[in-house]
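User: Just a sanity check before I run the rest of the batch. Below are the structure tokens for the first item. I only need the designed sequence back.
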């Protein structure tokens, strides 16, 4: 018996309003910070603070002493 499938794909394309974003990280919890699991932070954060389970970030503002990491909103793909 052949079963038919009805598949629907939702593809929304858009241009990000900014070419890059800066995130500010700490290895300690601060007021109004967000906890981020270690597999989700950029390598620069791990190099700065060493390996730990969680790091903390402020997405929109820089508080004194936080480590800033700037990333492009569109990744660079390496082709060989």
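Assistant: Here's the designed sequence for the first item:
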């Amino acid at each position: 018996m052949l079963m038919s499938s009805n598949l629907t794909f939702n593809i929304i394309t858009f241009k990000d309003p900014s070419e890059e974003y800066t995130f500010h990280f700490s290895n300690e919890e601060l007021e109004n910070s967000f906890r981020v699991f270690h597999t989700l932070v950029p390598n620069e954060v791990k190099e700065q603070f060493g390996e730990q389970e969680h790091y903390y970030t402020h997405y929109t503002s820089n508080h004194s002493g936080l480590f800033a990491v700037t990333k492009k909103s569109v990744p660079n793909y390496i082709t060989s």
